[in-house]
Amino acid sequence: MNSPVPITLGTIALSFHRAAAAVTQRVLEAYGHQVTVVEAPHEELFRRQAGGGIDVLVCAWLPSSHDTYLSAYRDQVRILAPYYRPYCLWAVPPYVPVMVSKVADLARPEVAARMTRTVDGINPGAGISRFSAAVIGGYGLDRAGYRFVPGTEAGFTARVERGIARQEWFVIPLWRPQYLNRSHGLRPLTEPRGLLGTVDTASPVVRRDALRRIHPEAVARMDTLYLGNDGIEELDTLINADGLTPLQAADRYLATHPGLLP
């Protein structure tokens, strides 16, 4: 009996990325692979795949968020079809009046006087963090006292929960898919200058030297596995609101979407 072929699966260290990776893990396992999961912040994960330490990376947001990391070794990988189509945004809680409907409104004196002007985010390598720093300067929000402060995923979500509990006026850099879009009715602000990037494609990235070891039907299955923003948010909600591990969330999701596995 042949031993399972080992595959190293890399995921960015954020819950919704873990969700997509867990579904991918179950696909690879269904075709007999032994999967080791590695997670790291954005730049480090791409560097590790470039160095040969990661066979499959789930997922690269292209072109806006992650092309800057992937471009250095693009010829060494195959980019599969997207699992979902993410995009970045800034949002405010639903109780902030609709007079705040666009990013530029944050600079109005009567708004800035009420708003918490520290804009908390996730790690600095994330596209949303790079874009948010550009938004601060691009819209002159720095002149109104705003500043962007990157942080951890846990600190970011705690900041949202704390702000809403206090009915605080604040703006939060967000993205779809992410479970907070479902839980608090956060209202996106329009950002017509495009400083928050475009709608990306979120695709698995497979090293070409690993394609020889991965079951071809597993590659074909990953290449047609579309979860959509709603599917990722459902998985992310199972992790963050229901307290499931990423694999438990994947198993529950796959049980109700049986066509995703062979």
What this model shows, in words?
- By secondary structure, the protein is α/β, with parallel strands linked by helices.
- It has 2 domains: 6-85 and 199-260, Periplasmic binding protein-like II (D-Maltodextrin-Binding Protein, domain 2, 3-Layer(aba) Sandwich), CATH 3.40.190; 87-188, D-Maltodextrin-Binding Protein, domain 2 (3-Layer(aba) Sandwich), CATH 3.40.190.100.
- Helices cover 37% and strands 19% of the residues.
- The protein has helices at residues 15-30, 42-50, 67-70, 109-112, 127-138, 153-165, 180-183, 208-211, 216-222, 228-240, 246-256; strands spanning 6-12, 34-40, 56-62, 77-79, 87-92, 118-120, 147-149, 172-176, 187-188, 201-207.
- The strands form 3 sheets. A 5-stranded mixed beta sheet has the order 2-1-3-10-4. A 3-stranded antiparallel beta sheet has the order 8-5-9, covered by helices on one side.
- α1 (15-30) links the parallel β1 and β2.
- α1 (15-30) packs antiparallel against α9, α1 crosses α10 and α1 packs across α11.
